[in-house]
Amino acid sequence: MSARYQVTGATAAEISASVESGIRHAALVPGDPLPPVRTLAVELAVSPATVSRAYADLRRRGLVVTAGRHGTRVRPRPPVAARRAALRPPPGPGLRDLSAGQPDTRLLPPLGPHLARLAESAGTPVGYPDVGVLPEVAEAARERLAADGIPPAEVTLTGGALDGIERLLGAHLRPGDAVAVEDPGWASLLDLIAALGMRPIGVPVDDDGPMVAGVAAALAAGARALVVTSRAQNPTGAAVSADRAAALRALLAEYADLLLIEDDHAAELARVPLHPLAGATASWAFLRSVSKPFGPDLRLAVLAGDETTVARVAGRARVGAGWVSTVLQRLVLSLWHDPAVTASVARAADSYERRRDGLIAALAVRGLPAHGRSGINVWLPVADETLAATVLRDAGWLAAPGALYRIAGPPALRITVSALDEEDLPALADALARAARPAVPAGFSA
User: Fold this and answer.
1) Fewer CB within 10 Å: C terminus or N terminus of the chain?
2) How many Cβ atoms are within 10 Å of 395's Cβ, its own excluded?
3) C-alpha span between 336 and 427 (Å, rounded)
4) Residue 153 — very low, low, confident or very high, per pLDDT cuts 50/70/90?
């Protein structure tokens, strides 16, 4: 281990964080050995078990590797932060996988006809000076946003919602800054914030979106950005209501320097009205991806916002990835303008709503309150999510453990309905009831 760096900490979490900090700041470089467990335990005056837990956490997150007699060393290419999504249990033979959070591929519009028309209409290949956001795409995007009450704004494109959020945070914040996020919230966003070296501050969520008191507490604690999911919140299905939006707007008006990011990833698939916060702060951005309604492989999101915010994102793109492919832009524009595709997306939204509401109703009959106002997921609170997930797996179903999405919230399971058919709902509800309330083995009696 580098002589310049001393691992510190009194708990497993603190020791793990100290090693990660050393790697992040290059005080520990790839191949550097960490002290043996017992040696570090003596140095820090903690138990060997505490150090072992810290090293196990670092190994799980891919920061270090243990190689027998060679001890524990920094990996050759250590990631900056944990891959929380890697904790999702792998599907096995005979298991129905309800953990992936993906749209139903059976309901995605076919791309073939649009690609064929695109090939027929393709003209002279474009060069570097000619690329950027196509004017016709920007105009169509503004029209679609205006129909949902988004104020007139500057528009650019990013390679999906998460790419847009990364560019926004990178343009406005610095490592160490705090970001207010929903708790429970999107696992990939939590990964991203950690990878950027920023700190998440959890904001409790109910069916109407982020709770006002929680947002106020996060802002009072120094959060410099707030990320809100407009509808189909992952994992709870929350959707910001009109009353909640009004209350949040009143609160945010007092924080002029806050970066407000709204993620409307479900877009056309959401069957609840949009109540945007756009414009509530001086620096704001509204993101709408095409992945959920039209296909995950279409890596494009519209980013609207105030002039400065959009200019920063577009400027950073120019010195990095450059632009979103104009071929992809034309394909998305073709999908937007096709009435058959619009009808197909509407049918998909109806199908998700029937499956989601049907599962929630079936669980309610069995005495289990669940959440899912919109989107493709149902959030089921449980007393012990590890036990619940195990019992459910034994019954042939795989759900995502709530630990992937929680910061400080209570345990739960996330069930994605896109892999279900309506006839599956009673059997699944029965299995979830057994998982949420597992039978307690009888103890010994006198």
Assistant:
1) C
2) 16
3) 38
4) confident
Instruction: Give the sign of the dihedral formed by CA 359, CA 363, CA 364, CA 366.
Output: positive
Residue 209's DSSP bridge partners are 206
What pLDDT score was predicted for residue 36?
Answer: 93
Residue 376, pLDDT score: 96
The token pair at 218 is: 């996060």
List the one residue out of 373, 302, 322, 340 whose CA is nearest residue 156. Answer: 302
**Percent of the chain at pLDDT above 90?**
71
pLDDT above 70: residue 364:
yes
Please report where in the chains the tokens 């989601």 appear, as a residue.
Answer: 356
pLDDT tens digits, 367-424: 999 999 999 999 999 999 989 999 999 999 999 999 889 988 899 999 999 999 999 9
Mean pLDDT of 235-244: 97
Tokens of 412: 């739960």
Long-range Cβ pairs for the range 410-413 (8 Å, 24+):
410/381, 411/381, 411/382, 411/383, 411/384, 411/385, 412/184, 412/235, 412/379, 412/380, 412/381, 412/382, 412/385, 413/379, 413/380, 413/382, 413/385, 413/388, 413/389
> Measuring CA to CA, how many Å separate 228 from each of 84, 181, 231, 262, 302?
20, 7, 9, 5, 16
Is residue 227 within 8 A of residue 174, CB to CB? The reply is no
